[in-house]
Each structure stands twice: as C-alpha cells, then as structure tokens.
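Each record in this resource describes a single protein on a pair of labelled lines. An example record follows, reproduced without changes.
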Amino acid sequence: MASASLAHRIKEQMPTASTLYYRLVLLVGKPRSGKTAALRQFAADQDCPLVNLNLALSERLLELTTKQRAIRVTRLLDAIAKENSADVLILDNIEILFSAELQQDPLRLLQGIARNRTVVASWAGDYQGKRLTYAEPSHPEYQQYDQPDAIIVPVEASSQPAPKAETEGQS
C-alpha cells in the first residue's frame, strides 16, 4: 500500500526533524497523489493530531474583515497549533495559506509554528533539485522557493495512484 510506504518515509524523518531549527516536514506531491492517505496513516501510527487546516483556519477567519484576516492569520495559526499540543502536528489541506487575500508567505507561516513542535504538512506541488513549488506557474497562487528550510518527502511517481482509465469512444 502506497500510503503505508509514504507514512514510513515520513516516520524516518522524525529523528532528523527534531534536531532542526524549523522542525518542518513537507510531504510534497501533485494533487491526488496520496498525500492525505499517507498523513492519515502516519497520524494513526504515531497517535498524532491531524488538522484540516482549510477548515480550522477558515472557521476563525469567517467573521473578520479582509484586512483583519491578513493581520491575524499568524496568531490564529499559532492558536490552532497550541490547541493540538502534541509534539508532532500534522496539517493537511493547507491551501488557505496561499490565498492572495491573506498576503502571507505560506512557508514562513509553517516554519513559525514548527519552532516548538514538529509539523508535518501536505504540500500540493513539486520538488525538483532544490526548488520547491506550489501549484503550477500559471496558477494565481503559485509559489516558488529555492532551498527551503524544511525536510522534503517527495511523493514519488511510482507511489501515485494510477490515472483513471479512459472510457471507449474518448480520444
């Protein structure tokens, strides 16, 4: 099972992550590549909280104005991390951090909460050489980082689910 293999690869990084300034581990892969299944498996194996960040953060931002959201997002993210007081926090569905409305650097936000605990987060993008990207270059939320200060666990092509078979009659 691919998710078990990915979960094991994340687990292998935990000793190294605990020694770093930013204790951040990013599970990097394209959408639908098995990141969520691997994070669920890892969370179950390690008995760690798994937070759907889009849901948790958007609930807190809902009543705020656009300007207030940009100002308070760092504090709100920190509060979410503190509520889940385990040594390892797992974040899935982090797309909200890339919203242009928040005017934030998503990697820096994650690094900020990874100072006092190990944070494992899904990252919908790619890691080639020493360049981490989020989304595709044509996407409005596209981000690129050279030599990110994080442990990168790439989702290998062989562990990605097979594409759906085409039905007859389609070209």
